[in-house]
Design a protein that fits this description.
This protein is of the alpha+beta class. The chain has five helices and ten strands, in the order αββββαβαβαβββαβ. α2 links the parallel β4 and β5. The N terminus is likely disordered.
């Protein structure tokens, strides 16, 4: 009678590989508590922007967003409100468009400039042309938010996920995740809810990336 051990070993090996792959996919990019590295990207006004340049900031509301995603459009006014409320307190919005222009022509730099002008964005709107920053952060959706807090010379990830719990209707929002995290941080408390599931369109990655 043939022993089943070789088949069992093969099955266990496959399961281990699947589990490892799933773990790596789930843990790709920054996690809460990680130290984020700085970047340098072009703003819609043509100037290069880095986080280190903003000396007076206590942290940042880094938001991966775009021109074309319906979810991103629904959250534009709320991003403006977040910036207006928290930038004076040291936490400005840093909006980043990571979409590949070949796959999403409406996310071109010229269209970004037009969108920023039409919506009167009070925050910077940066183009992640190489998609390097989005990959480093582990962003998957637009919008996808990362709240960073300055700790000495480091930028610590304090919150990752959605802006609130109702993308469709701002009047029916019950949980304002980003605001709650920022209010915790500004009062010296630990963030109570450090992560949520980002709801939005998938980032349009380059085919040859």
């Amino acid at each position: 009678m043939r022993k089943p051990y070789p088949l069992l070993v093969l099955l266990l090996s496959v399961l281990a590989l699947v589990s490892t792959t799933a773990y790596r996919m789930a843990n790709n990019g920054y996690q809460v508590g990680d130290t984020a590295t700085d970047f340098r990207l072009k703003n819609v006004n043509g100037q290069m922007v880095s986080l280190r340049d903003q000396k007076n900031a206590k942290g940042f509301i880094v938001t991966f967003t775009c021109n074309t995603c319906p979810y991103s459009k629904l959250y534009e006014d709320r991003l403006v409100q977040l910036h207006q409320k928290y930038a004076p307190k040291g936490y400005p919005v840093i909006a980043i468009n990571p979409n590949d222009v070949t796959l999403s022509p409406g996310d071109s730099f010229a269209d970004m400039q037009k969108r920023a002008k039409d919506k009167k964005f009070p925050f910077v709107y940066l183009q992640d042309e190489t998609q390097e920053v989005a990959r480093r952060y582990g962003a998957t959706r637009t919008p996808h938010v990362y709240v960073l807090t300055k700790t000495g010379q480091d930028l610590k990830v304090s919150y990752i996920g959605a802006i609130d719990d109702n993308s469709g209707d701002p009047e029916k929002v019950q949980k304002r995740y980003v605001e709650a995290a920022l209010d915790n941080l500004l009062t010296g408390k630990a963030v109570q809810q450090t992560s949520t599931k980002a709801i939005g369109c998938t980032i349009k990655w380059r085919n040859n990336s």
